[in-house]
Automatic annotation (TrEMBL), chain A:
The lineage of its organism: Eukaryota, Metazoa, Porifera, Hexactinellida, Hexasterophora. It is a single-pass type I membrane protein. InterPro entries: Beta-prop_EMC1_1st, EMC1, EMC1_C, Quinoprotein_ADH-like_sf, WD40/YVTN_repeat-like_dom_sf. The chain crosses the membrane at residues 921-946. GO terms for cellular component: EMC complex. Belongs to the EMC1 family. It is found in: Endoplasmic reticulum membrane. Component of the ER membrane protein complex (EMC). This is ER membrane protein complex subunit 1. GO terms for biological process: protein folding in endoplasmic reticulum.
TrEMBL record, chain B:
This is ER membrane protein complex subunit 7 beta-sandwich domain-containing protein. It comes from Oopsacas minuta. One of its GO terms (cellular component) is EMC complex. The lineage of its organism: Eukaryota, Metazoa, Porifera, Hexactinellida, Hexasterophora. The keyword DNA damage does not apply. The chain crosses the membrane at residues 152-171. It is a single-pass membrane protein. InterPro entries: Beta_sandwich_EMC7, EMC7. Belongs to the EMC7 family. Keywords: Membrane, Signal, Transmembrane, Transmembrane helix. It comes from the Eukaryota. It is found in: Membrane.
Length: 954, 229
């Protein structure tokens, strides 16, 4: 009896031990997840001087995000993300006034620089939609905001009132404003009339027109190449003829100077060449300067007496940046930032004395390659002994920006390239050679079909791991000096990492467990590889070459001089170091790729170029004698999907046979979304058991493709869906939804397809689940062929989504035993984990002969939203773009990574952590209880022996 | 003749209607502002600061940010029907359907029911400018049970220990109160069941004999002492 009680107890224990939790406990925040919040590459920046103790920097980025970071460490204080497709035109800042002008000059907002709260918002209510080519704003000394767009001039008070609104288009007879200069209450506007080819100027005092005049324009007049210098003179650059045109406002025609005459030439005037003037600079200086930037940079002075131009100083470096600051009285300092990629030097040039200030010159060693400086904002101040001090915020080509102190030190650097990710992928890193064995054994145990063998391998791999650990500890004891953080990292058996390729050409490798940056690389020539349907994407593949694996990144080149075709980067995935013997540029453009596997490992990539020729990467890889490849390409322009078959003829060349083509009605429909099934997906059950105990076999075609097209007729928006077999080109299913649009790529897994439509009539988003079955009998259980003629039974059901869906994906685990969850990413940045069983279609009565109907898990058509299923809780992801999923080591869990401006990573357990002890597992309690049992049984047995002896005696 | 006349009238009316409509269309690209206020009833001042920083109102691709008093404005909305959504990390707000009528220059708002979005009911209508209250707080986290005696007792591990122990004490008593015939039957059946397990020491048996009548503990001890002696 006592033994059976013990057995029963042990069994109960085992059951109760594995009761995991669904949602997170509040104190577990950040235990399994990490979150990176970004701002984006810097566009405008200001030093916030309102706090004397806690100084800050206000940053506005290219991605229309406004943020405040601390001056000391660069940490985020607050961040406001403005409308994505309506960029911030300009930002104004003085003392406690922070103004943004966005959405084509239509929305003016004032923010509290301290907390980031909105103070007021003004918009062009009641006006019509217009497109403005020029937008500029000033905050003048009388605390008025002057906003000039091509057709309008508006004055706002800092309190949030529209004071004056002038429609220039009406008053100036079709002339378009292109320049404004402000000095206290007076402003000068320049307008260009393209009909009469003349420049109109208007001088205003407190919005009342004082004077105006007309200057006849020259032939190649371009508004963007003109400056208004010192409220008096117009300077224009004509790039084609390399001439300066100068006129004071009183004159009616321009005076011409060739650059050669001014001893500037010969210089290369390219698209990027420009003339510019500092905003500060037009204030109260008696002399007027401007900058000419081409392959060399010049500071030029405009003499007011005779409108002549004089070179003050020339700077002759390729990667330099010039900027002015005149915050100090009686002086103007020009900062010249020069970078030779390993060092950044800052020099200060005193314009009035026309000499360099040697005491302010600094040279910094850049510890990484960031490209040349793009923008910089200096802040000059007097130190205690009346000497000049400064700090500069410099942004670089790779999207990062740093605060540089005058002491020659970089205070902090914010790496903002991660805010705009083009492509991302999970890879598995095996750190040491032993660990490689461990991981391969572990992988084998996970994939082996024989349970005894699998168990043996699992034990074997654990033994290897334990041995490594003991060796490692021994090493620490014997030679403690070697032990450091990297060694500690290296002992991790299998490390899962995420690779990110960003739009600015930066590649990152981040440890997915801890969120630590393992390495990063800046590749200025790499951009997304242009695919016809998706946005920019790159090919990221880990190939197992001996002796070590290589990470291959293939992307489009943004400069034909560097590479006319595909840029290829092959690095060591552990260190980010370039691997030798690989080409850095491929001469062809890739239209499709397939990975080649040997023993379940990727060993090479087959790339299809635009001429339908196969290239093998790396080219040293020798093909198997009988290699056959099936591929298909889709062209969104022509609406044609073509299947190709390639076979080797014993040698290394491929024979190309076009096998099928599927042509969409191009005039009627436009291909918008495209999804392919992951053929490496592990599937556990190939059938579904119905309530009458009959079996319905799933249609598990690994070559499925889903195309979603939209109607070109804007009055009758329609969504068409086609399900194709990628090998045979057979159309398996098609359907359409009228009055709908679709924006989210569909997901394909096992035997089902999930997609989203926007129901325009009902103004809501719907989620549709299609399940495909072979029927009650299985067609061919042992091998799959795409050419078998199977009648597919499709069941469907649609649901109402509770929000604005941006993206979705499906979880995947090592062996596919864990039921799948669909992760829905909503517009508010929340990731919602929806069990697939909640959205299963109903089994029709003909299939299940059971008297009671199949139970449906969700009786309502609306997807139930429980906040405990929001896996990123209150850490929302701004402008969510994509969610990636990779199986984790344990069967119950998978890694989920979502990115937009922010990046979020967590571990998701679709059906609770059934193979893992709960986090709050009470080790003391279980040891205590076991001890009590032990004592109990020992005492019991001794008593019973005693009793038996007693009985025998009696 | 009459029919032709009628036909012309219809044609004329149709053209008139069409021109009016197209005028309306031309007018309708005017831009509007949606104004409102969010009220957080159970939030402290410190919470409010954080809430206002992270809360945003969206209408399509347009955002409205919160001012320090909780009011918001979503600007530059053309006429038509829109869904207003409040993105707040801590509270759930109702979805609001906004209809901007360019003819009457009027903005109507009502609670949106996703299941029947086009059904207009009187009690769903909201007063414009909007004043929105949260429906419920968003509870992302599982509640950890506070410690109390009942949770300790109901813990499976404790139950495992206590229930069999209690049964061990209670069952023999029940056996004792049964009539002798039934007791005998039961013993027989038990013996049959356990005929193969004779060598196994039976703790329940021991307890039955010990507590269920017969010799008391003291007597047993005395008997043992005697035997040893």
């Amino acid at each position: 009896m006592e033994l059976s009680v013990l057995r029963y107890h042990t069994l109960c224990f085992i059951i109760f031990l594995f009761t995991g939790v669904w949602a997170l406990y509040e104190e577990d925040i950040g235990k399994f997840d990490w979150h990176i919040r970004s701002i984006g590459p810097m566009k405008f920046s200001f030093f916030d001087q309102t706090h004397h103790t806690n100084r800050r920097v206000i940053i506005s980025s290219e991605l229309s995000v406004l943020a405040s970071v601390t001056l000391r460490s660069g940490d985020l204080v607050w961040r406001r993300s403005l409308e994505e497709y309506r960029p911030i035109d300009t930002v104004l800042y003085r003392e406690s006034t922070l103004i943004t002008v966005s959405d084509n000059g239509k929305v003016v907002r004032r923010w509290d620089p301290e907390s980031g709260h909105l103070q007021w918002e003004m918009s062009s209510e009641g006006e019509y939609e217009t497109n403005e080519s020029y937008i500029n704003a000033y905050l003048n000394e009388t605390n008025k905001i002057i906003l000039l767009t091509s057709t309008k001039l508006k004055y706002y008070s800092v309190g949030g009132h529209l004071l004056i609104h002038k429609d220039l288009n009406m008053e100036m007879d079709g002339a378009v404003a292109f320049k404004m200069s402000v000095l206290k209450s007076s402003i000068i506007l320049l307008l260009y009339n393209s009909n009469s080819k003349s420049v109109n100027w208007v001088s205003m005092l407190n919005s009342k027109v004082q004077e105006n005049g007309i200057i006849q324009a020259f032939d190649n007049f371009r508004e963007e190449h003109c400056l208004l210098v010192g409220m008096r003179s117009i300077v224009c650059l004509d790039k084609q003829t390399a001439k300066f045109y100068v006129a004071t406002l009183e004159q009616s025609e321009f005076i011409v100077y060739t650059l050669i005459d001014l001893h500037i030439g010969p210089i290369d005037l390219t698209e990027e060449s420009c003339i510019q003037i500092s905003d500060h600079f037009s204030k109260v200086t008696p002399r007027f300067y401007f900058i000419l930037s081409a392959n060399r940079q010049f500071i030029l002075e405009l003499e007011f007496s005779d409108n002549s131009i004089r070179i003050v100083q020339s700077f002759s470096s390729d990667n330099s940046l010039l900027l002015f600051d005149d915050i100090l009285e009686n002086n103007i300092i020009v900062f010249s930032l020069t970078s030779d990629f390993t060092n950044l030097s800052v020099r200060c040039y005193d314009l009035y004395n026309e000499a360099y200030i040697d005491s302010l010159e600094i040279t910094l060693a850049m510890n990484r390659f960031s490209g040349s400086p793009v923008r910089a904002v200096p802040y000059l101040f007097y130190k205690k002994g009346q000497s000049i001090g400064y700090r500069i915020i410099v942004s670089f080509q790779d999207g990062s920006f740093s605060l540089i102190q005058q002491t020659g030190r970089i205070s902090w650097t914010r790496d903002e390239a991660l805010s705009d990710i083009v492509s991302a992928k999970f890879i598995t890193l095996s750190t040491t050679e032993e660990n490689t064995i461990y991981s391969s054994v572990l992988l084998d145990s996970a994939t082996s079909t024989n349970p005894v063998e699998g168990f043996y391998r699992m034990i074997y791999s654990q033994a290897i791991y334990v041995r490594d650990r003991i060796l490692h500890i021994k090493q620490i004891i014997l030679e403690p000096s070697i032990y450091n953080e990297t060694l500690h990292e290296a002992i991790q058996p299998v490390q899962s990492a995420a690779i990110f390729v960003t739009r600015l050409g930066k590649v990152y490798c981040i440890d997915s467990k801890s969120g630590l940056f393992l390495w990063n690389l800046y590749l200025p020539h790499l951009t997304g590889y242009l695919s016809s349907i998706y946005e920019d994407t790159c090919i990221i593949k880990l190939i197992n070459t001996s002796p070590e694996s290589a990470l291959v990144i293939l992307g489009h080149s943004n400069s034909p001089d560097y590479c006319n075709g595909t840029v290829s980067i092959v690095v060591n995935p552990l260190t980010g170091e370039y691997m030798p013997n690989y080409p850095s540029c491929l001469s062809y453009n890739i239209s499709q790729s397939v990975q080649l596997e040997e023993d379940g490992k990727v060993v090479a990539i087959a790339l299809l170029d635009s001429d339908n020729t196969i290239h093998i990467f790396p080219d040293t890889y020798s093909l198997q004698p009988d290699t056959r490849l099936f591929m298909y390409t889709a062209d969104a322009q022509t609406g044609e999907i073509t299947g190709h078959h390639f076979s080797t003829n014993g040698d290394d060349t491929f024979k190309h046979v076009p096998t099928w083509s599927f042509i969409l009605p191009r005039l009627r429909e436009e291909l918008v979304l495209f999804s392919v099934k992951n053929s490496a997906e592990s599937i556990y059950a190939n059938a579904r058991v119905l309530s009458d105990r009959s079996v319905l076999y799933k249609y598990l075609n690994p070559h499925l493709t889903v195309l979603i097209t939209e109607s070109r007729n804007e009055r009758k928006p329609c969504v068409y869906l086609y399900v194709l077999d990628g090998v045979s080109g057979r159309l398996i299913h098609q359907l359409y939804h009228s009055n709908a649009r679709s924006t989210v790529p569909p997901i394909l897994a096992e035997n089902w397809i999930a997609y989203q439509i926007i129901n325009l009539k009902e103004k809501r988003q719907e989620f549709i689940m299609l399940e495909m079955y072979e029927g009650k009998t299985v067609n061919n259980a042992s091998t799959w062929t795409s050419f078998a003629n199977i009648n597919v039974l499709v069941l469907s059901r649609s649901f109402i989504l509770p929000g604005d869906l941006y993206t979705m994906t499906v979880t995947s685990t090592n062996r596919g035993i864990t039921p799948k969850d669909i992760i829905l990413g909503f517009g508010n940045g929340q990731l919602f984990s929806l069990p697939k069983s909640f959205v299963e279609p109903k089994i029709p009565h003909e299939l299940s002969k059971s008297p009671s109907p199949e139970p449906a898990k969700s009786p309502t058509p609306k997807i139930p939203l429980s906040y405990q299923r929001v896996i990123n809780y209150n850490k929302s992801i701004d402008r969510l773009r994509e969610i990636l999923v990779a199986p984790a080591e344990l069967e119950s869990t998978c890694s989920v990574l979502a990115y937009g401006i922010d990046i979020f990573h967590t571990q998701s357990s679709p059906s609770k952590s059934f193979d893992k002890l709960a986090e709050d597992f009470g080790y003391t309690l279980i040891i205590g209880v076991l001890a009590v049992f032990l004592v109990f049984s020992l005492v019991g047995s001794s008593i019973s022996v005693y009793r038996k002896t007693n009985q025998n005696w009696c | 003749m009459m029919q032709a006349y009628r036909y012309y009238v219809i044609l004329f009316l149709y053209t008139l209607l069409y021109t009016i409509q197209s005028n309306e269309l031309a007018k309708s690209n005017k831009l509007y502002q949606i104004k409102g206020e969010l009220v957080f009833p159970s939030a402290t001042v410190l919470d409010l600061k954080e809430l206002f920083q992270n809360t945003r109102v969206t209408v399509g691709s347009r955002y409205g940010f919160l001012r320090s008093d909780g009011s918001f404005v979503v600007s530059n909305i053309p006429s038509g029907s829109f869904v207003l959504e409040v993105n707040c990390p801590k509270f759930e707000f109702p979805l609001v359907r906004i209809d901007i009528n360019p003819k009457a220059d009027r903005i109507n708002a009502r609670r949106l029911d996703l299941i029947k979005p086009n059904q207009i009911s009187q009690d769903a209508t909201l007063i414009y400018p909007l004043t929105l209250m949260p429906d419920r707080p968003k509870d992302y986290f599982e509640q950890r049970q506070p410690w109390n005696i009942s949770s300790l007792l109901m813990n499976p591990m404790v139950l495992l220990l206590v229930v069999p122990a209690v049964l061990m004490f209670v069952l023999p008593k029940l056996m004792g109160s049964m009539d002798p015939g039934a007791q005998k039957d039961m013993e027989e059946s038990m013996q049959k069941l356990q005929s193969g397990k004779d060598k196994m020491p039976e703790i329940a048996d021991l307890f039955t004999n010990w507590f269920g009548g017969g010799q008391s503990g003291k007597e047993v001890r005395k008997a043992l002492k005697k035997k040893r002696n």
